[in-house]
Amino acid sequence: MNLSSTNVTVVIEYRDSFTKAVTKNVIVVVLSISINYINAGLIHTFRKHQIFYMNPRYILFIHLVVNDMIQVTLTVMLFVISYTIYKLSVSVCGTLILIALFTTENTPLNLACMAVECYIAICVPLRHVQICTVRRTLMLIGLIWATSMVSVLPDLFITLATEPLDFFHSQVFCLRETAFRNPLIIKKRDITYIIYLVVVCLTFSFQEMNTSSTNVTVAVRYQDSFSKAVTKNVIVVVLGISISYINAGLIHTFCKHQIFYMNPRYILFIHLLVNDMIQVTLTIILFVISYTIYKVNVSVCCMFVLIVLFTTENTPLNLACMAVECYIAICVPLRHVQICTVRRTLMLIGLIWATSMVSVLPDLFITLATEPLDFFHSQVFCLRQTVFPNPLIIKKRDITYTIFKVNTRYILFIHLVVNDMIQLTISISLFIFTYTFNTIYVSVCCFLILPAILTTLNTPLNLAFMAAECYIAVCIPLRYNYICTVKRTYIVIGIIWATSSLSVLPDIFILLATEPLEFLNSRVYCYRDSVFRSTYSLKKRDASHIFFLVVVWLTLFYTYFRILFAAKAADADAKKARNTILLHGFQIFKMNPRFILFIHLVVNDMIQLTISISLFIFSYVFHTIYVSIDLQISIYYLRDLQDPQIVSMNSSSLNVSSALSYRDSWNTAVAKNVIVVALGFTINYINGTLIHTFRKHQIFYVNPRYILFIHLVFNDMIQLTTTLSLFVFSKDSTISDMNVSSVNGTFTVAGIQRDTFTTAVTKNLIVTALCISINYINGTLIHTFRKHQIFYSSPRYILFIHLVINDMMQLALSTLLHIISYALYIISVPFCLILLIITILTTLNTPLNLAGMAVECYIAICVPLRHGQICTIRKTYILIGLIWAASACSILPDLFILLATEPLQFFHSKVLCARDFVFRSNYSQKKREVSHIVCLALVWLTLFYTYFRILFAAKEATADFKKARNTILLHGFQLLLCMLIYVRPMFEQGLFYLLPEQHSTIRFTAYVIVQIMPRFVSPIVYGLRDQTFRRYVTRYLLCKLTFIRDTFTTAFVKNLIVVLVWLILSYINGTLVATFFRHQAFYEDPRYILFIHMVINDAIQLTVTITLFVLSYIFYKINVSFCCLFILVAVFTTRNTPVNLASMAIERYIAICEPLRHSQICTVRRTYMVIGLIWFICVAPDITDLFVTLATESLSFFHESVFCLRQNVFKDPILAQKRQAFDIIYFSCVFLTLIFTYLRIMFAARAVSTEKISAQRARNTILLHGVQLAMCLLSYISPSVELVLHLMFPGRMLEIRFANYLIVYILPRFLSPVIYGVRDKKFRKYFKMYLLSNRCRKKQQEVDPRDM
């Protein structure tokens, strides 16, 4: 698509002659009139007949007709204007072009939707009426217009933001390039066109393929005429020759220049060209053959179709690889040469072909297994569907099938067959690779080992379940159909895989937790002991082997003897089942020696020789393969009388090792590979036959015995494939099964009683007040640092400001955790992990940062001449990075141990958010003690060394050295407080022993002293004692600025009031939200959904406005970009509240005045739609402020700092007028809504209720809504009220604004909890228990401030 689609005019250097111009315009206008006449006739026909109104196809078609009429009219109008007026105003031209672009982009989208409707009508006819409804069709038309607008409207916004206002009043030649001339728009247009092209083409291709698959004989029934056939063939052949000529030229260029041979990008590109040449050539040959010979031999057609499919699937894979190479070249340029080598590129090309073959070759195998030989000598019309007609292939191709249908016995059997095919394929591949690569990457080896061991463990479990199914069929025949259902069989299969996965996956977690990242990029001989080297994995493996051996053999013995006893009083079927169990036992015995052998090797590994083990394993592998094949055939092929075609192949568990001291010769290697490949094809042919037999006979679909057997076959296929792969890569050791038992340490915390409500509130107020005070001082220090360039170049101040920022983060998070421990008590584990890790990181950073500052002070005093060389800004930032890295190295292992030892369910649970309750492993406890001791020793040694060196230097120096010595002493005191974190657990345990009744007090005191008090010292050391810093910090701390500001006391009191109110409201709102989400009863009630939306909205609004309030006192001015974000969120949420209240009033009106229709009107889905409409109504008018500002203000304005008010950011006078107009509209609509609903409810309540109490309660609820709404509506008139009060009290502007802020923005948020949290009986029942922090739970254990 280009602009020519919307405007046929082309900008040329000269104008047409008058005659030519008239001719062109007449032709265009006549065509336009003719087309519109036909389209109008279609529209008239549609309107006159009701039958078309209910058909989605005709609705989409008529929308296409109307859209095309608009598009043709506008483009013809632009064409005529280009010859008559020539130039238009940019505003008019922009409007015409936008509409033309909308309609132009609508056309392909509409056609794609019509193709989808046609696909549904043909391929899913039974669901067509449900899917393609009139309502959804109209929604789809709206979506088409929305998509087109999303593609085009950014052009308008970019033009408004980048062009001056004079441009929109100028005259231009009306083209898209002249109206929207920014280069960014052109790039965006190209990207959107590519996306549209791909999406629409894929839609049409998918529809064509699916509709063609429903009728394979379309080409046979409807032949083209001779002329049309010749034309099509000529076009295709010419295109094919042209493309091949171009590709051949590119290939010739590549071959002639050696420079391209070493570049992976060009190698991949030339492979793509060769692949496409083959694909184009073959597809054209097939196309021409379909018109000339018409039918060809199946064998020849197979060959052509397979190569075409290979090359077709190669193309996207090749393009993906080229994209990856481009990404590496741009994003990882330093490693590009190492990663993208020629050898790896050739390997990648081989992998592309292997992937395509793996996708396509099963079609050939299934066809060989299911079709008679005569089929391959017959003649067919050469299509994929006619050559590979099996329904399983079609389903496999579309990835819409499931292997197992409704049979119970044969579901498991087919699963086993497919499993064996996968296992055999992977093992043959790895067997071949062993003679080429020898060693592979650890990550690839892990990927191969995991499925190998999974399937190895699946086999005995599957056989055990099959034995259990046989036992139920013989011993409990009357309940067999109830117990062995298809659903339960699938559950059993899932349990088998889950059991094997739980045994294997922990090895990966232990590997990630114990090995460095470099290990995953190294190359090893691929066997288990070289990858999973941890002793925990070895011990876990022993336990899992014993567990599997005991469980499987107990199951087998139990079922065998029960069947044996039942056989005495039964017929031959019971004897047959008994014998089947015996054969199963023998098969398990042939597999279980790998467990016994493993234990034997552990006991005697000092005696046995490596070479004898290797030879034994090698011979054991092939012996087990053949015995397993013969055994399963004898069980199910010779013994099953229902269908003699069933032949099963159970790939037994293999323990493979290739610990040979030398490599095979080339002849030996080829011979072995030929043998393995032949075996693989043979077994896959047999398995394909089994799958075909299973699918062709419904009798097997409901029998659990065959379902379990199919699962066994499928499992063994995976196991055999993977173990043979590992045999190929292994060299030095035997591959054994992987099982992991997670190591999970436990940590018991003594339970104590919770604090009383008064004590809890007091403690939280103390902690919050300290946090606010310290962070206020720290915020002033950061502001001082940012305002003065002199501090930017001093490493001392950089380290100091990093310490301040780190302490602010630590204090805020630790306080938050302290409050959460009293308010919510337990929270989700992932959220707790995030808070804990960041808190612990910042806590550990503080002593390390102080040690770094002490070292800097020592260098400045003791090595002054080299201070400038050693303490540079770059090295300072490197030191800060090392501090974070050292802290991360201390805490991240806890996370890895947690992932390795805890089950997945733990991460979905809720816990008391303390370190000991989350990181419960004994290893984490021991690691923490060791790291604390190491940090304590290193940091104290650093401090003592620097202190004594400075102390000795001070004896021979001036007072400056004394000051430095005192600074070090203060550092030591601060460091002493910070390092109490390392010894805090020991001191707490001692105090618990001495004062057993004061657990809560001891923990709170320790929290204040260890976590909060050290943060007081930083401002004292640098904010008061350092002369340079003190000179600047006092003016900001005490607010001594040139403009009129509140005094420090007034400012502090105001901020404290606001923050305390915010904390109380946030606590109440958090309790309301927690109450809502913990009780399903509220999820289906529109009233509570709207209420909780209002609570969340108010919480956001309150947080943002209070943040702006506090920032206005700390920084006074902030960046315009950040201010824009804060103001827009505040305005959106402020406007949401009254509209949400009006919606709640309407819901109450419907519930009381229309009670019979309330459930139909007020549904949950419509409630969410109303919430979306609320946000749209509130966002749409005010977001225009941002667009106008972007269009009118320069870019430099957004880098300035301003006092963050709406009128300071959005300064255009038009915006103020627009704001007043919308305020009036909002005020009128919401106020009228409230009055109407209030009066209607009051009258209805009086008429319906027999008691005055009910009527009075409904009236009071609406009155409270009215009060809250009236206070919210004050935001619409607050500017006018402020202006009047300022005229009356000219010296009280600050007090007026503060009072206005409290009344307009904060007080309305108090009423929400009153209306629903106190007055609503249903909500109040659950609300109390969470509001009072569960203080009724006297026996509940307590965890106070966490151990950071």
From TrEMBL:
Keyword annotations: Membrane, Transmembrane, Transmembrane helix
Keyword Cytoplasm applies: no
Main localization (coarse): membrane
Annotated ranges, domain G-protein coupled receptors family 1 profile: 38-206, 246-435, 444-729, 777-1022, 1068-1316
Superkingdom assignment: Eukaryota
Tagged with keyword tRNA processing: no
Gene3D superfamilies per UniProt: Rhodopsin 7-helix transmembrane proteins
Gene Ontology cellular component list: membrane
Alphabetical list of SUPFAM superfamilies matching this protein: Family A G protein-coupled receptor-like
Residue intervals passing through the bilayer: 25-46, 58-80, 85-103, 109-126, 138-161, 191-209, 230-254, 266-289, 296-311, 317-334, 346-369, 410-433, 440-457, 463-482, 489-513, 543-561, 595-622, 674-694, 706-729, 765-785, 797-816, 822-844, 876-900, 930-948, 968-984, 1004-1024, 1059-1077, 1114-1134, 1167-1191, 1224-1241, 1262-1278, 1298-1318
Annotated localization: Membrane
InterPro entries reported for this sequence: GPCR1_Superfamily_Member (IPR052921), GPCR_Rhodpsn (IPR000276), GPCR_Rhodpsn_7TM (IPR017452)
PROSITE patterns: G_PROTEIN_RECEP_F1_2
Protein name listed in UniProt: G-protein coupled receptors family 1 profile domain-containing protein
The organism of origin for this protein: Lates japonicus
Origin organism lineage: Eukaryota, Metazoa, Chordata, Craniata, Vertebrata
